[in-house]
């Protein structure tokens, strides 16, 4: 089976690999790490009502995919405006069809959520289960002092690559490797969708790359360093709000589309222009071997609670911080560990006034 897959990829390489992959090969930025995201699964949704169906459930605008985008970041909320599932939605080559990536732990819950609102719509929901894999290719060395450029920065937009064409067989399963730029941040690199028989060597050979396979723990630590939440570890079901989780800054919320589940509270917070808490990256001084409970208190030098830790991996973590109080604190700690608070430089410059006082503490 593996030999067949390699033969297939070699035979179809010219068909699917063009300038976009040449750019990927020539870019030193994306030549460091590849990770199999075992905690992410794919769902295939198709049918004449698929676009309208998703539009009424998710925070982003599905029309971006119709206007040329290959992938979008989006959330699915409950009626109280809290996050149930975070996802990346990929456009398929076939008409009215999408792949949706979500956390594997919540995969069955996500399917139930979709089917609950399906009603009589002409929508097919097909779990890919173990038929496909999700990978990530990214640059794994980002210095603490480096500017985390926004994906809309015109200086880097020229490097963007288009998704590889997806060719489907009659069962709706892709039979080649597809590459999409991560729609959240340029620094997060590329998502790669493959059949389950494909391994990292196949991807390297197919894309003419030489990338070392890393463990998922390396990707999580890197993502925390950037300050980007993802999955059940960072979004406990029905707890987090989209704007406090920076999902607006990560291009995951549209404020121009029509109504969707949870839209009312999200829009109200947005139009007030005040978000007092946001998820921010934390750097532990001299490392920290302790493990903390989710939402354990983070305090300052006066013992005042200025935030709550969400999760950490190695020297890096994510905290839901009270921006004003955190910006005025000289010491930040949790239990016996001290830490530094980072201001992600990919945050837009025209932030609400409450955030403007936050200074980079690096």
Task: Report how far apart the termini are.
Answer: 51 Å
Count of individual beta strands? 16
Report Rg. Answer: 21 Å
Order of helices and strands: HHHEEHHEEEHEEHEEHEHHEEEEHEEH
The biggest beta sheet reads: 6 strands, antiparallel, barrel
* DSSP helix fraction: 10-25%
Global outline: globular
Category from helices, strands and their pairing: alpha+beta
Strand order of the largest sheet: 11-14-13-12-15-16
Count of helix runs? 12
Can you tell me about this structure?
This protein has 362 residues and is of the alpha+beta class. The chain has twelve helices and 16 strands. The chain has helices at residues 2-11, 13-16, 19-26, 50-55, 63-66, 107-118, 154-157, 200-206, 216-226, 263-272, 323-327, 353-356; strands at residues 33-36, 40-46, 71-77, 83-91, 97-103, 124-127, 132-138, 178-181, 190-195, 212-214, 277-284, 296-300, 305-313, 316-322, 332-334, 337-341. The strands form three sheets. Strands 11-14-13-12-15-16 form a six-stranded antiparallel β-barrel. The chain has a five-stranded mixed β-sheet with strand order 8-9-7-1-10. Strands 3-4-5-2-6 form a five-stranded antiparallel β-sheet, covered by helices on one side. The longest helix has 12 residues, at 107-118. The chain starts with a helix and ends in a 6-residue tail after the last helix. Mean pLDDT is 81; it is low at 1-31, 145-174 and 352-362. This is Aminomethyltransferase folate-binding domain-containing protein. Its main location: mitochondrion. It is found in: Mitochondrion.
């Amino acid at each position: 089976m593996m030999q067949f897959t390699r033969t297939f990829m070699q035979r179809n390489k010219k068909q699917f690999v063009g300038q976009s992959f040449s750019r990927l090969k020539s870019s030193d930025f994306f030549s460091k790490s590849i990770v199999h995201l075992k905690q992410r699964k794919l769902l295939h949704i198709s049918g004449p009502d698929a676009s309208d169906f998703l539009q009424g459930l998710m925070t982003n605008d599905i029309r971006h995919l119709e206007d040329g985008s290959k992938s979008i970041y989006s959330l699915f909320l409950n009626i109280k405006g809290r996050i149930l599932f975070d996802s990346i939605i990929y456009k398929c080559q076939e008409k009215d069809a999408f792949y949706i990536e979500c956390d594997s732990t919540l995969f069955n819950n996500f399917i139930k959520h979709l089917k609950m609102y399906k009603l009589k719509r002409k929508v097919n929901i097909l779990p890919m289960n173990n038929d496909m894999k999700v990978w990530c290719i990214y640059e794994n060395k980002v210095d603490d002092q480096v500017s985390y450029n926004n994906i809309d920065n015109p200086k880097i937009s020229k490097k963007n690559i288009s998704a590889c064409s997806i060719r489907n067989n009659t069962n709706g399963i892709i039979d080649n490797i597809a590459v999409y730029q991560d729609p959240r941040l340029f620094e997060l690199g590329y998502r790669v969708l493959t059949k389950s028989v494909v391994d990292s060597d196949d991807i390297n050979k197919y894309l003419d790359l030489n990338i070392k396979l890393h463990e998922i723990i390396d990707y999580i630590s890197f993502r925390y360093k950037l300050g980007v939440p993802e999955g059940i570890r960072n979004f406990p079901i029905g707890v987090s709000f989209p704007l406090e989780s920076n999902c607006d800054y990560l291009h995951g919320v549209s404020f121009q589309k029509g109504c969707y589940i949870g839209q009312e509270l999200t829009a109200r917070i947005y139009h007030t222009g005040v978000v007092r808490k946001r998820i921010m990256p934390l750097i532990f001084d001299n490392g920290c071997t302790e493990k903390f409970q989710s939402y354990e208190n983070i305090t300052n030098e006066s013992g005042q609670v200025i935030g709550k830790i969400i999760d950490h991996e190695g020297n890096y973590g994510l905290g839901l911080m009270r921006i004003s109080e955190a910006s005025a604190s000289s010491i930040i700690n949790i239990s016996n560990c001290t830490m530094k608070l980072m201001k992600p430089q990919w945050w837009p410059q025209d932030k609400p006034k409450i955030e403007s006082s936050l200074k980079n503490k690096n």
